[in-house]
Specification:
Elements (H helix, E strand, L loop, with lengths): L1 H8 L4 E8 L7 E6 L2 E5 L3 E3 L4 E8 L2 E9 L3 E8 L5 E2 L2 E3 L6 E4 L4 E3 L3 E2 L7 E6 L3 E4 L2 E4 L7 E6 L33 E7 L4 E4 L2 E5 L2 E4 L5 E6 L6 E5 L7 E4 L4 E7 L5 E4 L2 E5 L1 E7 L2 E9 L2 E10 L6 E5 L4
Parallel strand pairs: 1-7, 9-16, 17-23, 24-30
Antiparallel strand pairs: 1-4, 2-3, 2-5, 5-6, 8-12, 10-11, 10-13, 13-15, 14-16, 17-20, 18-19, 18-21, 21-22, 24-27, 25-26, 25-28, 28-29
Amino acid sequence: MITLTLALLWPRPARVQFALSPQGLEAPRFSLMQGEALVEIRPGARLPAEEGATFCAEAKGYPRRCLWFTLSPGENTLRFELEPGLYLRPILDPPDVPAQILIGEAQIPVTIPFPVVDEGKALWVRVHAEGYISDPPELLWSVSTAQPRFRLIKEPDMGVSDAGARVEDAATAQPQPQPPAKRRAHTMARLDSAPLGAEVRCDGALIGLSPVRIDTSTGPRRCEIHAEGYLTATQRLERHQQRPITVTLRRPIPLTIRVERGSAEIFIDGARVGQGVVRDHPLAPGTHTLTARFRSEEIARKVIELREGERPQTVHLNPKP
């Protein structure tokens, strides 16, 4: 009887398995974020159930990706979609034009795909194709951004079509000196989040999963940080900002609101959220004003204070006497 009672009270541990896409990746590695350190774990590891944590996966040629998971008792399969991001693969339009890729201030020719050793370093990338003009002339690229894209435009014919005129031989033509391209002052800022692995979008464009490096050469930029189970945070980055930012995401507090008059509309901080009963509406910690309206007339109002880490709350809005 004692053994049976302990078995019922003791929570089942969570067993962790991993599923990677694409399949067949070389040298996969898995880790768990503990504090600010990554601890390597193996498939089949047993961990406490019903606890959330940041897990990471990586493989040879595929950079680390971190995601937040909440474990359930028993078997858990954590799925990761990895993308090759530690290689430079410029996209050319049209793609069949023979071209040479040059990188760095010294414009060193490289073979594509080119492996990037320093993940945090940005590279100047330039394309040279005989008889074509590259648009843009060059780009500053880092592994946290999309692969650079260049449009190749055929150079106009420099010959003369008038009768009796000859076309200048390209082999004997004297090259005209070109003014150096004017480069803009380039700055980047690192954005971290707690937990790691949150999705970061700036000005509507997906940047990647935190931590990321964001181009602040133009600005200001408005970034949104989102992770499952957390409230979306907004962070403003000023133009030319280089100071690193860490955004701590907050968990929402589920709030249930009931009104005695079932057809009354319910508002939170002036925004309509439902009618009659609103269940488990996620709210950020802080002060909120709840109101109920019936036929456009306010019949109930209550100001509440939610504190960080509170349990789900239920509020009854009683009509004014």
